[in-house]
Amino acid sequence: MFQNKKLVCFDLDGTLIDSVGIWNQVDAALIHELSGIKANLKLIQQQRDLQLTAFRHLPDPYLEYCGYLKELYGFELNKEDVKNRRYSISRHFLDHVVELKPQAELIIQALKKQEIPLALTTTTSLFNVQRYQDNNQNINAKISFDDDFALILTRENVQNIKPHPEIYLNVLEHFKIEAKDCLIIEDSLIGVEAANNAGIEVVAIYDQYSAHEIELIKARANYFVQDFTELLRHIA
């Protein structure tokens, strides 16, 4: 799995950090605040996944997603203000609630010990990554994004979000390596598809919020592991 690899790329949300459910809570709080409606968390996630996929070719898919929420739930605010309010609500969760996945720091340490460079390849925003690094002690007490990763690519670095392969093609170009030299670790179907579309081997790691797509994820990933404890066994 890791043999002869010159680079390992990690997705962030749902892969390194346990955050997908947090965004469901953020959106639920946003919807309730602006409409009074108590939306189902599972439905929120399904709506968000579908809309972000549909809007992936636009300059700001998350802005368009906020516009979708505005129309669906009848918000009075415009979509720009909805987006601003969404991120205001998210700050408490980003700073105090989000945690690393169990053993995530150990997999990073093990790969660094093998002298394999690491990249963080996420379609979340740089704002979120910096907030985790600066304010979230659950995360920054265990890993350092700046020190542990040789390259950090976020939503601001690409025109097309996953499942488009742009972020992974950019990684290959940056490190001047071929697809066979790289390994990607993802949790979601769109992440696995982005790796597939870039022609790079991908390990899918289980996340409860991707469980509804688990069979497709397993079918399209080169490897599947239940958690980082299992993945650690594959490092020499």
TrEMBL record:
Organism: Acinetobacter schindleri NIPH 900
This protein's name: FCP1 homology domain-containing protein
Lineage: Bacteria, Pseudomonadati, Pseudomonadota, Gammaproteobacteria, Moraxellales
The organism's place on the tree of life at top rank: Bacteria
InterPro entries recorded: HAD-like_sf (IPR036412), HAD-SF_hydro_IA (IPR006439), HAD_2 (IPR041492), HAD_sf (IPR023214), PGP-like_dom2 (IPR023198)
SUPFAM superfamilies, per the entry: HAD-like (SSF56784)
A single MF term (Gene Ontology): phosphatase activity
One Pfam family matching this protein: HAD_2
CDD domains: HAD_BPGM-like
